[in-house]
Amino acid sequence: MTNKIFSKIKLVIHLTREFVFLIVLLIIFFAVMTFWGHQEYVHLWAGALVLFSITKIYFLVSHTFKKLDILIENDHSFNHMLLLLGAIITIIVISFAIDYLCVSEIYPEAFSGIQYGQSLALRFMNLLYFSIVTFTTVGYGDIIPVIPVAKLITVLEMMSAFVVIVFIISKYFKK
After folding, report:
1. Can you name the residues that pair with 112 across neighbouring β-strands?
2. Residues with Cβ < 8 Å from 130, sequence gap 6 or more?
3. CA–CA dist 155, 161 (Å, integer)
């Protein structure tokens, strides 16, 4: 019993470390992009952001499958799997919100429904909302990606949502 509690605490600490590392990387990317000519080299920064997003999703999904294998191997409860799933969803949603914020800095017209005179914090909150709506496939249509880079990153989030929800849950119940 204490071994499973220790394992759960270890999982939470590990996921928190990954979350903080990823968010710090994204914030550094945003800061570097903002200070080093994101308006002069829009295609370079947009390409770097797409490459970063693809790498991030690969990393998150592959590590999630490895963690899930460990949970299944150690015969952990469904609650442990839900904890893992909730943590990964949170990481994906927040990291894509930062990706969308980067896109909106590179291309101010990237999203219809976002007012660009807003403070950075308020714009982030709107893009976090958009990320949650995209991940859950609700799609209200009040915020819409209108340029190709924004659409591509939105598709990446939709694909990651599908993989995380469908494949991870089916893998857990396949055990």
Report:
1. 144
2. 97, 100, 111, 143
3. 10
**Domain segments of the chain: what residues?**
2-174
Which runs of consecutive H residues, i.e. helices, occur in the chain? Answer: 2-35, 42-73, 78-106, 120-135, 148-162, 169-174
In this structure, are residues 56 and 157 in contact, taking their beta carbons and an 8 Å threshold? no
Q: Determine which helix (DSSP H) or strand (DSSP E) holds 76, and give its type and residue range.
A: none
- Please provide the size of the chain in residues: 175
Which CATH topology does 2-174 take? Helix Hairpins (1.10.287)
CA distances (Å), 81 to each of 32, 76, 136, 143, in order?
Answer: 36, 8, 19, 32
- Chunked into runs of 10 residues, the chain (175 residues) has average pLDDT values of 67 74 80 74 86 89 79 71 83 92 90 86 94 91 94 95 83 67
**In whole angstroms, what is the distance from residue 68 CA to residue 76 CA?**
10
CA nearest neighbour of 137 among 115, 117, 112, 154: 154
Q: What are the structure tokens assigned to 143, written together?
A: 């915020």
pTM (2 decimals)? 0.84
